[in-house]
Design goal:
Length: 337
């Protein structure tokens, strides 16, 4: 049985609010608020932070995150030998970051939420990366100390994975990228146990709503160069795409004059990337297919939408809540060991 999730709500400026909305939490009390809201269950092996995308009511965001993790648990319990590195089991816990993403369908609604997502994460304007960064830093501080009780068999305590959908992927990239800035703005450079250096162990973004060259133009600081260390991201950034996704295909094309990552995959990038297919639950991913800085996952064969969603303006944009997606998620958790 999954541990109860925690919901973190943001307003239109990306400011942290009380449960279910309400007044913004003052910046000086963000850490205190998170400490009060987030109580990490000691039996957990993997922490997943999920940020939803376009046209997602808050309750649906929570249901989506829970369903993906439920499917992952079901897959693990049905065939644990398929994920041999999960020697201590797989007991996930989820933090769901929710933000106002609903709009009218069509180009006008897509542009409105695109602009809001940008405003919520823009430097000097939006608070979303600041809040999510504090959230990630807090979770890092609370992860099981390997010198403490033998809750887990692994050396580094719980593992931390990021999951995003659509515009939620932008928020996550902004938050992790800001960790590389000086002076530190996210609290990730505070003293830590050298045996447990902070890292994000994997990042999985479904149908990202961003231009195909976003990692070159907007998120280059995620990756190390000769002059800077890059963000604390140990594992790969894995991105799914499907040509049946009209939100990042048709509407993104009309709004930004180019198809988005969720439709066509990543284009130009500052690091080498690899492309492969989304696999059925009974087929294992080769290590070399996922062990890259950027991995494009072609999901054309599965993320096609139902007959009903094919009439929806966003097409198959949200058609990722499937066992095959959970298989990918679970494989990333296993390979992080």
């Amino acid at each position: 049985m999954l541990a109860s999730p925690v919901e973190v709500d943001l307003d239109e400026q990306g400011r942290l609010t009380g449960p279910g909305g309400g007044s913004p939490v003052p910046v000086t009390r963000v850490a205190e608020h998170l400490a009060r809201r987030l109580v990490l269950p000691v039996s957990v092996t993997d922490i997943h932070v999920y940020v939803h995308g376009w046209q997602t009511p808050p309750a649906q965001a929570t249901r989506t995150a829970l369903r993906l993790l439920e499917q992952a648990v079901e897959l693990y319990e049905s065939a644990p030998s398929r994920y041999p590195a999960l020697k201590s089991g797989y007991r996930p816990w989820c933090v769901v970051v929710r933000w106002p993403s609903s709009s009218l369908p069509g180009k006008k609604g897509y542009v409105r939420i695109r602009d809001r997502a940008h405003a919520m994460s823009a430097e000097g304007q939006g608070h979303a990366p600041y809040v999510i960064g504090h959230l990630l830093g807090y979770l890092d501080a609370e992860r099981t100390d390997p010198a403490g009780p033998a809750v887990l068999a692994n050396r580094t305590g719980q593992y931390l994975h990021l999951m995003g959908h659509s515009f939620g992927g932008r928020f996550l990239c902004e938050a992790v990228q800001r960790a590389a800035e000086r002076p530190p703005v996210l609290g990730w450079s505070t003293p830590h146990d050298s045996r447990r250096p902070f890292t994000v162990d994997s990042m999985l973004i479904f149908q990202m709503a961003a231009p195909r060259d976003a990692f070159l133009r907007h998120f280059g600081a995620l990756f190390p160069t000769a002059t800077r260390p890059g963000a604390p991201l140990r594992g790969p950034i894995v991105l799914t795409h499907s040509r049946w996704d009209r939100a990042t295909g048709f509407w993104h094309l009309r709004a930004e004059k180019t198809a988005g990552i969720g439709h066509s995959g990543t284009g130009a990038a500052p690091v080498p990337q690899f492309s492969t297919r989304l696999l059925p639950t009974g087929t294992d991913y080769a290590q070399q297919a996922l062990d890259h800085r950027l991995v494009n996952i072609d999901a054309d064969w599965l993320y096609r939408g139902s007959r009903r969603t094919r009439l929806n303006p966003s097409g198959a944009h949200s058609d990722f809540v499937r066992p095959e997606s959970a298989h990918l998620l679970l494989t990333l958790a296993e390979r992080s060991r």
